[in-house]
Amino acid sequence: MSRIIDYGKLMHAAMRRLIQDVLSDVQDHGLPGTHHFFVTFDTTHPDSRLADWLRERYPSEMTVVMQHWYDDLEVGDEGFSITLNFGDAPEHLYIPYDAIQTFVDPSVEFGLRFEQQQDEDDVDPLEKLDTDAPAAQQDAPDPETAQDTPREADVVSLDSFRKS
Asked: What is the pLDDT of residues 128-156, one digit of tens each?
């Protein structure tokens, strides 16, 4: 069986490590300057932990803001836990990195978005070249005709990510 490099999976792992590094720095030194984060995560992820009333209110996804008041930030290899204030009700959350859908720091116009992923065990790598890619998706060529069929290149513009 032919093997492919799953660039989408590698990019997602690198982006999640970036989030872990940023949160580790905040854990050690606090939020610098005007930095603050909007984190949207999948509340149905099996490892997400949140109060039942929050899960009922946000049955599929939830966006939390880490800015003025937060407590007990603990950053780990698989996710992070934090206590946030919900209308004068402090609640402890655990958010796995795999559950994060978006991570945004609007103070510097930085953001990451993770596409929905299928279970890697359920997908033959030859059936997809890279459905996890953050910017563009494309189908894998048929292995029988890949050498004979020219493919057009996918062009991704990075201009929308540049600061004016």
From this structure: 334 443 333 333 334 343 344 333 433 43
